[in-house]
Fold this protein.
Amino acid sequence: MNNYKRQYRELDQETKQKISDSSRNKPKSEEHKKRISQGMLKYWESVPHRPEENNEVSPF
């Protein structure tokens, strides 16, 4: 597994808002946006979802 800072995909709303606020009003070219998008898609393919916490016993 890769050594990324984030362990799971899910974030709390406060963290999402901080990220949104910090990136607001910073102009980027269309090419820059495209490359950011491609990089993030590649990154998120390797980050797993947080396991669900349920007390049910798996039949397997």
User: Anything to note?
Assistant: The helical segments are 13-23, 30-45. The mean pLDDT is 80.
